[in-house]
Amino acid sequence: MSETISFRQEVANLLYASEGEPLNTCIQCGTCSGTCPVAPYMDYTPRQIIAMINQGMKEQVLESNTFWYCASCYHCTVRCPQDINITDLMYALKRYSIWKGQHKEGLIGPTFSEAFVKMIVRTGRSFEPVLAPSYIFSFGMRELLLEVQGATELLLKGRLPLLPSRIKRLDNFKRMLGRIIPMGGLE
Amino acid sequence: MKKEFAYFPGCSLEKMAISYHMSAIETTKKLGVHLKELEDWNCCGATTYSYIDELLAYTLSARNLAIAEQTGLDVVAPCSACYKNMYFTAAHLKKDPDLAEHINFALEEDNLHFTGSVGVKHLIEVFAYDIGPEELKSKVVKPLTGLRIAPYYGCQIVRPQKDHEDVELPQFFEEILSAIGATPVNYPLKMRCCGGSLIISSRPAALSMVRNLLQCAVDSQADVVATACPMCQVNLEVYQQQVNQEFGTNFSVPIMYFTQLIGLALGIPQKKLGIGKEFVAATPALLRLEQAGAAPDQETKE
User: Fold this and answer.
1) Taking CB atoms and an 8 Å limit, are A108 and B202 in contact across chains?
2) What's the average model confidence in pLDDT over B207-234?
3) Residue B73 sits in a domain of what CATH number?
4) pLDDT digits (tens, 9 = 90+) for B146-204
5) What pLDDT digit, counting tens, does each position of A85-119 carry?
């Protein structure tokens, strides 16, 4: 006998250290949406997303760009009168959508984050040039040229690394991460 | 009294924000604070790690925290994102013994253990609280008199809220700028976000956020925007040209690390502070300062 849990419950379970059910306490005041600097670019504002989760509108939530457009600035979070960590909620939705492999088409966020994680797993440090392929192909010609121009200037100013930096105890590091998640898919 | 901290530079400071690293080391040295770089540190996970897996993100920061604990010193991060990740990882692990046990099981592979003894600070807090404006002021040899500076706090120094700090209108950045003789301007967007990694993933949104911040600096008649985060610096500076192309604006606002400005006031040569590596030259603003009679060091100017 299997019990199905609601979308709202699934999302709530993904919020680390969420005491009680924070989404339940939302009073739909809209302080988050009024504060969010990216709200004008989102399909639905943070307030709307919370209402949609509470209504179980799973497909519409997952197909929206809202949480992928969250810049993690925590401005909504420090202002929420109900102390809901809305930024963490956006993180939770990102993880949920990556795990389920379901997100709005054409977004750079999901592929970029996966490329970033793979890079860190390999070397322990960030090296910008290996990340470029995860987003550069989605750019138009003009954006591409601007990106190349910017990178060239960084290089000339001595601000772009040519070789990846890596940590010394890389073997230990990889075994350490292997104790947290199965590494098969990431290496 | 000699102060010492473990220092976690983070990936950006290796290259992209090398001038932040240089000026952090030079200024702290001058003020009698020793920053001891963490041995074999790894990436903090930035924001993207949390997008994929929360435990993985905690593990990355926990390794750095555990290495810091071996030194017996508090750890300092100059990057706001690294700082936030380390601070909250330490807080969560201390609050949740099950989580700590799980992460410590992983850390065993690198012969490390997190106990919770380490304190985490942002570099600007070292200047604001450990050194303090009074002490800083007493060491100034070339006050930046007349230089109008916008104190840009950005997001993750004070957010999410930690204790009872002022998250709406903090003043510690202004106090630092006043201590070095500069004029901190009223910068209404000082707590707003630069867009962070949206500059890659959602560029139109990020460019408009950067435009607003630059416009606000111009409206505040700031000569320079001072920042305490490599991400903010790159977004506001490296993408300034793209903002101009996108919106038909004509911004030319120098974006400097607060440590570079402190360094100038302490009489450290510009080259040692990494001045000259910026896209929007800081030199015109600094020259005006020179002409006004309060000369920062010009010897190393090309």
Assistant:
1) yes
2) 97
3) 1.20.1050.140
4) 999 999 999 999 999 998 899 999 999 999 999 999 999 999 999 999 999 999 899 99
5) 999 899 989 989 988 888 888 888 888 888 888 88
Give domain status of residue B302, yes or no.
no
Same domain for B279 and B152 = yes
Q: Are B80 and B157 found together in one domain?
A: no
> Does A108 contact B201 at a Cβ distance shorter than 8 Å?
yes
* ipTM confidence score: 0.91
Could you tell me if B299 lies within 8 Å of chain A, comparing CB atoms?
A: no
Q: What is the CATH number of the domain that holds B273?
A: 3.40.50.11810
Residues B185 and B102 in one domain: no
CB pairs under 8 A between A and B: 188
| Among B123, B153, B178, residue at a domain's last position | B123
Domain membership of residue B168 (yes or no) is yes
Is B135 part of any domain?
no
CA–CA min distance A179, chain B (Å): 5
Same domain, B214 and B255: yes
Torsions phi, psi for B59 (to 5 deg): -65, -40
Which residues form the domain of B66?
Answer: 3-123
Of B290 and B95, the one with more pLDDT: B95
Per the DSSP assignment, residues forming a β-bridge with B152 are B227
Which chain A residues contact residue B104 at CB under 8 A?
none
Could you tell me if B155 and B26 lie in one domain? Answer: no
Residue B114 and residue B67: Cα distance in Å, rounded? Answer: 8
Using the Cβ of B15 and the Cβ atoms of chain A, whether some distance falls under 8 Å is answered with yes
* Percent of chain B scoring above 90 in pLDDT: 85
> Which stretches in chain A have pLDDT values below 50?
1, 185
Asked if residue B259 and residue B149 are part of one domain, the reply reads yes
Separation of alpha carbons B189 and B212, rounded Å? 8
Q: Which two tokens stand for residue A141?
A: 């010609």
Q: CB distance from B200 to chain A under 8 Å?
A: yes
**DSSP for A166-186, written as a single string:** --S-HHHHHHHHHTTS--TTT
pTM above 0.90, yes or no: yes
DSSP A39: G
The C-alpha atoms of residue B186 and residue B148 are separated, in whole angstroms, by 10
Residues B278 and B256: beta-carbon distance below 8 Å: yes
